[in-house]
Structure formats: C-alpha cells, structure tokens
Amino acid sequence: MKKITPHGRGRLLRDPPARPIAREAPSAGRPNAAPPYGRRETDVSRPLRIAAAAALAGGAGLLLPALALAAEAKKLDPGNTAWVLTSTALVLFMTIPGLSLFYGGLVRAKNILSLLMQCFAITCLVSLLWLAYAYSLAFTEGGGANALLGGLGKAFFKGVGVESLQGDIPETVFAMFQLTFAIITPALFVGGFAERMKFSSLLVFTALWVTLVYAPVAHWVWGGGWLAGLGALDFAGGTVVHINSGVTALVAALIIGPRRGFPETPMIPHNLPMTVTGAGMLWVGWFGFNAGSALAANGTAGMAMLVTHMSAAAGALAWMVSEWTRHGKPSVLGIATGAVAGLVAITPASGTVGPMGGLLLGALAGFICFSATSYMKQVLKVDDSLDVFPVHGVGGLLGAILTGVFTAKGLGGAGFAEGMTLGRQLWVQIVGAGATLVYAGVVSFILLKIVDAAMGLRAPANEEVEGLDLALHNETGYELR
User: Fold this and answer.
1) In the chain, is it the N or the C terminus that has fewer CB atoms within a 10 Å radius of its CB?
2) What is the pLDDT of residue 448?
3) What is d(CA 334, CA 318) in angstroms, rounded to the nearest whole number?
4) The model scores a pTM over 0.70
5) Residue 16: other Cβ atoms inside 10 A
C-alpha cells in the first residue's frame, strides 16, 4: 500500500529540516607522507614545511564557514521556489481581478463598484492582519493549545528573514502563498450577501472572521492541529477555503435577509461577458491554487494540474447538460458556474486522486451543485445572492468527503497512508468536513450578531434602492452619455 506524503504545508512547518553538517575541507598536500625517494629533509626545509602546513590549516579554518554556508544554501531549491512564487501570483490573480470580475458581472449595474471595492479592500485588510498575527496563529506551534490554534511566536513575522527556509523554499514565499488563500476565502463569502451589506460592517466582520474562524481552521488542517493529527486529507482547501466560506455566506444571507424584491423581482446579472472573463481567470489561477500546494515543481504538482483541469471541464459540461435538460437551453452563466463547481470539488483531492477521480468529482459537482442551487432559490427561497453556498459549500463538502474514496489506489489515487483504510479515511474526511461546517457556522453567526448589534449589518432601504455604488462610495460603474 502506497504511503501518502504528508501535505507540504503542514510537513514543512512541523518538521523543519535539520541544518547540514559541513564536511571537513580536504587537506592540501600530504603532510604525513614520507619524503620522495632519495630526498633528505634539511634543517632549512623542515621549518618551511611547518610554516606551510600552518598556513594551510589556517586557510582551511577560514574556508570551513564558507563551505557550511554553501551547504546551507544548497537546501534552497530554485526551481521549487520559482514555482511557488508563480503560484502565489496566480492565486492572488484569482481574487483581484478574477473573482472580482466573476462576481461583479453577476450583480446589478448599480452595485458593481461596491462589489469590486469589497474584494479589493478585503485583499488589503487581510494582508495586514496576516503580517500582524494571523500567519503566526495558523502556522506556528501553539503549545498546550496546539491542537486548536497556533501561537504568536511569529507575530509581525518575527524571525522571518531572507535566510529563513520552510523546507526548500524561503519562508517569505511560503507565507505569501498562504496569504493568498486567506485573502480569497473571505472574498468568496461576500457573494452570499451582495448588494445589501454595509461596507464598514463587512470590514469589521472580516477582521473578526479571519482571526477567529480562518486562522484556527487553517491550523487544524495545515498547521499541525487536530485534523492533521487524525490524518485528514485537504490538499488545497476544501475545508479551509470552500466549506468555510460557503457556510459563512449562508449564515450571513439568512441573518441579513433577502434583497428587496426577492424572489418576485428578477435579479438579472448586468454583465455576463465580465462574469465569463472572471471565470476564465479563476480557472487559470486555480492551477496555482492546487498545483502550487505541492510546494514543489514535481510530479504531484503536475498531476494536481491535470486533475484540476479535467474536473473543471467535467463540471462545466455536467452543469450545462443539467440546465439544458431542465430548462430546454444551456446558458453561458451555467457552463461558467459549472466549471467553478468542478474546481471547488477537486481542490481538497487534487494532490491524491488520479485523472479519472478528477473527472468523476467534477461531473458529480456539476450535477449536484446545479441541483443545490435550484433547490435553494426555488424551494427554500434563500437569497444567497451569487450562489456561494450551493457552489462552494456543497461543492467543498462533496470534494472533502469523496477525497476519502478517490484517493484509493484501486481507483487510480495515490493510496492511503500506512495503517489507513478506505473506511477509516472516509470517516476522518466526514469528521473534518462536519467540524468545519459546524464551527464556521456557529462562530460566524455569533460574530454577525455582535457586529449587527454594534453597528448594523444591512444598508438602509433607501441606499439599497439607490444602489450601493452611489450610496456608499459616491461613484457609478458606468457613465453612459
């Protein structure tokens, strides 16, 4: 049975590489050798030989630190570093501009700037929180509370310098890569309450949420917390990113309430070309999201890229077929959303499943997320504005749980860790997904209620009717003359 290599994020931080031991510098000459045949050592030559030996020894002493530094430098892998640097840029590109455009085209024209502003501001806010303490909470040892949360040993990046390594990449690169995940997660949940939440309240809630929800869950899975100890598989964020953001969006949509006029008044997307452009950017950026999570330019990264692409394609076609069958015509919005659903579902599994596992996960996500979206809108009448929960919440749950199935070697996956069976792995995946769902839902509910009591969550009725672009930002997205 093939043993799975632990996820790069957790492995690097919990088991830092030992410092290399410098090898002794080779001695120049042979001071202990006998003189050449027929040659006698004279009284003059002997002091000269002793002086030369001393000089060589001194030179070797000076050379040893340089050799040690050279050995240390060899631990940084330029190829892996270059790939993770590229992946970091790709994942940030997913939020600004990818997700911003995808969401922006789905809202009404009077709210386009408010949506773009939310994504941009979240990017800036989370970046500063990450520097201050969130990175440390997620990815350092937490002492007695380590199962639940990290410590503050690296607050304000204390001890993180040019020479700091995590495995064979700089820790600065590792921290930046992880930051892009922390950015996109709260940016995802703004779609659940788009067009009706106060901007100031969003910023306060996001700061609290990153501190009390995102950082702990990231630590559970990737920072050596209790889910990592159980052996939960989440290669790139099925629990940490998608279940987390999906359930938060649902809770917020229920607390804030539907948009005015929903469901009687159609809330038609104002710019579908913008949305499809954003979806394409998300698709490309997702290669950094999933393949970059290998933290190396290796075969695992290559397979992650392959299965990511196949899952997106299968999800897009499955959603298109579902919509075509139910409504008589396929839509460009449907095929784009299906691709995103496939990308969501493959995220936790991308490092451990094979091509057929990726295809099946994507197809299932397309069918199931389409049904979940229709059920929420038409039966439950829940106004999750941009379908965050049925796509990211349901897709994340599907992917997280079925990772425990499609990782099986008999199904083309990498195989389970030593001592782990399919049944046990499946149970661990269910526990991880369920714990994240409950924790994120409960804590988000409490935080939303606190912010609502302190400053109100919902924009006033007149501002909602006017549009948040003008009401909150005194701007309009389009000047039509």
Assistant:
1) C
2) 99
3) 10
4) yes
5) 13
